[in-house]
Write a sequence for this structure.
Protein backbone atom coordinates (compact mmCIF):
# COMPACT_ATOMS: atom_id res chain seq x y z
CA UNK A 1 0.00 0.00 0.00
CA UNK A 2 1.29 3.46 -0.93
CA UNK A 3 2.34 5.37 2.20
CA UNK A 4 1.62 9.05 2.71
CA UNK A 5 2.23 11.60 5.48
CA UNK A 6 0.41 14.57 6.99
CA UNK A 7 1.64 17.14 9.52
CA UNK A 8 -0.41 19.46 11.73
CA UNK A 9 0.61 22.15 14.23
CA UNK A 10 -1.21 23.69 17.16
CA UNK A 11 -0.24 26.14 19.91
CA UNK A 12 -1.87 27.85 22.89
CA UNK A 13 -0.66 30.69 25.14
CA UNK A 14 0.47 29.85 28.65
CA UNK A 15 -1.19 31.85 31.43
CA UNK A 16 1.10 34.62 32.62
CA UNK A 17 1.31 33.12 36.09
CA UNK A 18 2.83 29.86 34.75
CA UNK A 19 6.61 29.71 34.38
CA UNK A 20 8.25 27.89 31.44
CA UNK A 21 9.79 25.45 33.95
CA UNK A 22 6.35 24.53 35.31
CA UNK A 23 5.02 24.04 31.79
CA UNK A 24 7.94 21.77 30.89
CA UNK A 25 7.31 19.75 34.07
CA UNK A 26 3.70 19.36 32.93
CA UNK A 27 4.84 17.96 29.58
CA UNK A 28 7.30 15.61 31.27
CA UNK A 29 4.43 14.09 33.28
CA UNK A 30 3.35 11.80 30.44
CA UNK A 31 0.00 10.99 31.99
CA UNK A 32 -1.00 14.60 31.26
CA UNK A 33 -0.35 14.15 27.55
CA UNK A 34 -2.36 10.96 27.39
CA UNK A 35 -5.25 12.31 29.44
CA UNK A 36 -5.54 15.44 27.31
CA UNK A 37 -6.01 13.35 24.15
CA UNK A 38 -9.73 13.23 23.45
CA UNK A 39 -10.01 9.58 22.37
CA UNK A 40 -8.18 7.91 25.29
CA UNK A 41 -10.20 5.65 27.61
CA UNK A 42 -7.58 3.52 29.41
CA UNK A 43 -3.80 3.73 29.80
CA UNK A 44 -1.16 1.42 31.26
CA UNK A 45 2.36 2.56 32.18
CA UNK A 46 4.74 -0.21 31.10
CA UNK A 47 7.76 1.64 32.48
CA UNK A 48 11.19 2.38 30.95
CA UNK A 49 12.23 0.62 27.76
CA UNK A 50 16.03 0.40 27.81
CA UNK A 51 15.88 -2.29 25.14
CA UNK A 52 14.71 0.24 22.55
CA UNK A 53 17.29 0.60 19.78
CA UNK A 54 17.51 4.36 19.34
CA UNK A 55 18.99 4.25 15.88
CA UNK A 56 15.92 2.39 14.58
CA UNK A 57 14.06 5.70 14.77
CA UNK A 58 16.11 8.90 14.38
CA UNK A 59 13.26 10.86 15.98
CA UNK A 60 14.66 9.81 19.38
CA UNK A 61 18.12 10.36 20.88
CA UNK A 62 20.22 7.99 22.96
CA UNK A 63 20.77 9.47 26.45
CA UNK A 64 24.50 8.78 26.08
CA UNK A 65 24.71 11.16 23.10
CA UNK A 66 22.16 13.80 24.13
CA UNK A 67 22.68 15.05 27.71
CA UNK A 68 19.08 16.20 28.16
CA UNK A 69 17.43 13.11 26.63
CA UNK A 70 15.70 10.72 29.02
CA UNK A 71 15.25 6.98 28.79
CA UNK A 72 12.28 5.95 26.66
CA UNK A 73 9.07 5.28 28.62
CA UNK A 74 6.36 3.04 27.15
CA UNK A 75 2.59 3.19 27.64
CA UNK A 76 -0.22 0.99 26.36
CA UNK A 77 -3.30 3.03 25.49
CA UNK A 78 -6.85 2.21 24.49
CA UNK A 79 -8.73 4.64 22.28
CA UNK A 80 -12.32 4.62 21.06
CA UNK A 81 -12.74 5.98 17.53
CA UNK A 82 -15.92 6.56 15.56
CA UNK A 83 -15.92 4.56 12.33
CA UNK A 84 -19.54 5.20 11.32
CA UNK A 85 -21.09 8.40 12.74
CA UNK A 86 -24.70 8.59 13.83
CA UNK A 87 -25.28 5.03 15.09
CA UNK A 88 -23.91 5.35 18.62
CA UNK A 89 -21.69 2.62 20.03
CA UNK A 90 -22.38 0.40 17.02
CA UNK A 91 -20.24 2.72 14.93
CA UNK A 92 -17.30 2.83 17.36
CA UNK A 93 -14.16 0.71 17.55
CA UNK A 94 -11.62 0.27 20.35
CA UNK A 95 -7.96 0.46 19.31
CA UNK A 96 -4.91 -0.65 21.30
CA UNK A 97 -1.83 1.53 20.81
CA UNK A 98 1.75 1.42 22.02
CA UNK A 99 3.10 4.89 22.77
CA UNK A 100 6.68 5.76 23.71
CA UNK A 101 7.80 9.06 25.25
CA UNK A 102 11.19 10.74 25.60
CA UNK A 103 11.79 13.91 27.61
CA UNK A 104 14.11 16.57 26.21
CA UNK A 105 15.26 19.80 27.85
CA UNK A 106 12.30 21.93 26.73
CA UNK A 107 9.97 19.38 25.17
CA UNK A 108 8.78 15.80 25.03
CA UNK A 109 8.63 13.57 21.95
CA UNK A 110 6.31 10.63 21.41
CA UNK A 111 5.56 7.92 18.88
CA UNK A 112 2.27 6.05 18.75
CA UNK A 113 1.91 2.81 16.80
CA UNK A 114 -1.65 1.88 15.88
CA UNK A 115 -3.25 -1.01 13.97
CA UNK A 116 -3.29 -0.85 10.19
CA UNK A 117 0.24 0.50 9.79
CA UNK A 118 -0.52 3.91 11.31
CA UNK A 119 2.36 5.70 13.06
CA UNK A 120 2.09 9.10 14.72
CA UNK A 121 5.07 11.18 15.88
CA UNK A 122 4.48 14.24 18.05
CA UNK A 123 6.57 16.83 19.85
CA UNK A 124 5.21 19.14 22.55
CA UNK A 125 7.37 22.19 23.28
CA UNK A 126 7.42 25.26 25.50
CA UNK A 127 8.26 28.19 23.21
CA UNK A 128 8.65 31.92 23.71
CA UNK A 129 5.92 33.87 21.92
CA UNK A 130 7.16 34.93 18.51
CA UNK A 131 8.99 31.66 17.78
CA UNK A 132 7.54 28.90 15.65
CA UNK A 133 5.69 31.37 13.46
CA UNK A 134 3.61 32.97 16.24
CA UNK A 135 3.96 36.74 16.54
CA UNK A 136 4.18 38.43 19.92
CA UNK A 137 1.99 41.42 20.64
CA UNK A 138 3.82 44.75 20.65
CA UNK A 139 5.34 45.41 24.06
CA UNK A 140 4.61 41.89 25.30
CA UNK A 141 7.42 40.56 27.49
CA UNK A 142 8.22 36.96 28.34
CA UNK A 143 5.08 35.48 26.85
CA UNK A 144 5.19 31.71 26.31
CA UNK A 145 3.20 29.06 24.46
CA UNK A 146 2.81 25.30 24.48
CA UNK A 147 3.24 24.20 20.87
CA UNK A 148 2.58 20.83 19.27
CA UNK A 149 3.74 19.37 15.96
CA UNK A 150 2.21 16.05 14.90
CA UNK A 151 3.12 13.90 11.89
CA UNK A 152 1.19 10.81 10.84
CA UNK A 153 2.21 8.18 8.29
CA UNK A 154 -0.19 5.55 6.95
CA UNK A 155 -1.61 4.09 3.76
CA UNK A 156 -3.02 6.59 1.29
CA UNK A 157 -6.43 4.90 1.26
CA UNK A 158 -6.98 5.34 5.00
CA UNK A 159 -5.33 8.78 5.33
CA UNK A 160 -8.59 10.82 5.05
CA UNK A 161 -10.08 8.89 7.99
CA UNK A 162 -6.86 8.94 10.04
CA UNK A 163 -6.34 12.66 9.38
CA UNK A 164 -9.86 13.50 10.53
CA UNK A 165 -9.53 11.43 13.72
CA UNK A 166 -6.07 12.84 14.50
CA UNK A 167 -7.07 16.47 14.05
CA UNK A 168 -10.16 15.97 16.20
CA UNK A 169 -8.13 14.29 18.96
CA UNK A 170 -5.27 16.81 19.01
CA UNK A 171 -6.91 20.16 18.28
CA UNK A 172 -7.50 21.02 21.95
CA UNK A 173 -4.48 19.35 23.57
CA UNK A 174 -2.33 22.48 23.89
CA UNK A 175 -5.12 24.35 25.68
CA UNK A 176 -5.69 21.43 28.06
CA UNK A 177 -1.96 21.18 28.78
CA UNK A 178 -1.82 24.92 29.55
CA UNK A 179 -4.72 24.44 31.97
CA UNK A 180 -2.89 21.52 33.62
CA UNK A 181 0.26 23.62 33.97
CA UNK A 182 -1.74 26.36 35.69
CA UNK A 183 -3.11 23.78 38.15
CA UNK A 184 0.42 22.59 38.99
CA UNK A 185 0.13 19.20 37.32
CA UNK A 186 3.80 18.84 36.51
CA UNK A 187 6.21 15.99 37.08
CA UNK A 188 7.05 16.02 40.76
CA UNK A 189 4.28 18.50 41.60
CA UNK A 190 1.14 16.54 40.68
CA UNK A 191 -1.95 17.81 42.47
CA UNK A 192 -5.58 16.84 42.25
CA UNK A 193 -8.05 19.63 41.54
CA UNK A 194 -11.25 19.53 43.63
CA UNK A 195 -13.23 20.25 40.45
CA UNK A 196 -11.76 17.31 38.55
CA UNK A 197 -13.46 14.00 37.91
CA UNK A 198 -11.85 11.23 40.01
CA UNK A 199 -9.59 8.73 38.32
CA UNK A 200 -10.04 5.07 39.10
CA UNK A 201 -6.98 2.92 39.62
CA UNK A 202 -7.93 -0.28 37.83
CA UNK A 203 -4.82 -2.43 38.07
CA UNK A 204 -1.25 -2.36 39.35
CA UNK A 205 1.11 -5.22 38.59
CA UNK A 206 4.93 -5.32 38.53
CA UNK A 207 5.15 -1.57 38.27
CA UNK A 208 2.52 -1.28 35.55
CA UNK A 209 -0.25 1.16 36.33
CA UNK A 210 -3.56 1.19 34.49
CA UNK A 211 -6.02 4.05 34.86
CA UNK A 212 -9.49 4.36 33.37
CA UNK A 213 -11.24 7.69 32.94
CA UNK A 214 -14.93 8.29 33.21
Amino acid sequence: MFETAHTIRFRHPLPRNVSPASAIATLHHHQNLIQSQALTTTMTNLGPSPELVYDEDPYFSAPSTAPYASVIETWEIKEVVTIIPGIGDWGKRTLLLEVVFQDLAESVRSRATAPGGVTVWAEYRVEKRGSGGAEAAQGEIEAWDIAEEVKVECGALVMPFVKRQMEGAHKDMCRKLCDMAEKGKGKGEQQDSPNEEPRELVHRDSGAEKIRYG
In short: The helical segments are 20-28, 30-35, 159-170, 173-182. Residues 190-214 have pLDDT under 50 and may be disordered. The chain has one domain: 3-212. The beta strands are 3-13, 40-48, 73-82, 92-103, 107-114, 118-128, 144-155, 200-205, 208-212.
